[in-house]
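writing this on my phone so excuse typos. first protein, seq and then structure
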Amino acid sequence: MRLKVKVTKLDLGDVGKACTAAEKVLASEIHKSTRPYVPMLTGAFDRNSRVIGNVIEYVGDQVNYLWNGVKMVNSKTGAGPRVIPGVGPRWPKGATLVPTSTPLHYTTDHHAKAGDHWMDRSERDNGRKWQEIGEEAVAHGLDKY
């Protein structure tokens, strides 16, 4: 995602510090406003997501599986995942997954907009708001430095 931010003060050191601080603020906002788009069955995948500095991480065996929106199978066995109650789908350690043409069905019981490519869909809906927050965060940071 790219944001354009207008800067009126030109002290490059201050601009750099302000932008670094703004990236962290913006990452937290993006993470928060993207939650309704994140697939959620048991809640484990959503709970394990986190913001580290300016990076949003979604962790777990199922990230690729959920992001692509198609069922994945073990390349050697052709088997799908073993579903562990309260945890979600899991494959054997070291398994190489290949996509199938079968689409996933995402439940919307917990997150109304849940589905594949959640960050992209959230950006379409929230991108303008994120840009405004980024601009404000940079401007506020420039006032501090």
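second protein below, same order as before
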Amino acid sequence: MAPQEVFPGIFRIEVDSRAVLATRNMTPGRKVYGEQLVEVDGVEYRTWNPYRSKLAAAVLKGLKESPLSIGDRVLYLGVASGTTCSHISDLVGPKGYVWGVDFAPRSLRDLVSNVARYRKNISPILGDARDPASYSAEVQRVDVLYADVAQPAQAELVVKNAEVFLRQGGRLAMAIKSRSVNVTRSPRDVYSDQIRVLERAGFTVGEVLELEPYEKDHAMVTATYRA
């Protein structure tokens, strides 16, 4: 099976007689988290594990429109060690850029040593996503805000960053971790509450996808910023 482009920069390829998600590898021959490298017609692809990446899970759960495009500038909140970030780096390509923020020094060290040092389109930032002013000098205006943070006020945190960094008409992809927001309420009630915060701040919500079986009590929300 020839690679099929699901969205710009995101492909389905055949591995062991089954179709899997993949991105073109910006660093041929180099893995990030144990993924398979597959060459098709002289192009190397990295398989994308939906159990390790909520964005991949959202695609497999039926995402209708990708929040990311080739050449996008992206602010990634909660970048951790870079599993999903590496695929976003592949996706946006050399004309795009990713600023990755995380407050955990260990995760940032892994991001630097395993991913960013080999890719010219990633800048790791040690910082607290609750305080966007603290890294405002390091990040340009972006096309996409990608958020995957375990905080009780996830939507409020996203809004703060959007006000500083996200361009008008920019896009959001937010992975809501319901148990991090409120463990006493149902996940769907939590998703609704977080969405209302986004809408009050000027976001137009597009899709809401629950991510089971890949992630329990998680949803991916996409939106457009019109503040």
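The first strand starts at residue 4 and ends at 7. thats all i got for now
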